[in-house]
Amino acid sequence: MSGRVFRIILSERRYRFQPEALRAHAPRRPGVYLLLAGDGGAPKVLYVGAAIPGRGETVYAALAGHLMGNLRPNKTDLLKHARDLYFEFLAEADVSAPEDYLDIAGALAARTPPCIKPPGKGLASGRYDSVSLEVS
After folding, report:
1. Which structural domain, as residue segments, surrounds residue 104?
2. What's the CATH number where 85 sits?
3. How many CA atoms lie within 13 A of 49 on its CB side?
């Protein structure tokens, strides 16, 4: 195994975690997303998720799942941590395989540990000894 550096660009801004913003801004493609608390001051990362190709997942579908209560953490879980909820997403990345999204999500979670951990074994594919990010 070896290390991997991913070059990524996050969305230009954060969007309110509400249906209108999802419909208007959430990508209808696979990728990585962050759910954030925005109660004044610097945003706090609540959750980092990955929508993986091949599973029919898109960032839009995953975010809608959290909002509608079909995925954990759901909106009720998130509101326990903050009144104002936001999302941002991976706008661009040099991915070459679906598992790359897991590795990017894992590296983002390692940089800023989220308040809510993903279920199961967590993020990262295990294909690399180390994963780092160059964020533009």
Report:
1. 3-135
2. 3.40.1440.10
3. 26
The amino acid at residue 67 is L
pLDDT (tens, 9 = 90+) of the chain, 136 residues, equals: 689 999 999 999 999 999 999 999 999 999 999 999 986 678 899 999 999 877 669 999 999 999 999 999 999 999 999 899 999 999 999 999 989 999 999 999 999 899 998 765 567 888 899 999 999 8
Count the domains in the chain: 1
**What span, in angstroms and rounded, lies between the C-alpha atoms of 113 and 92?**
22
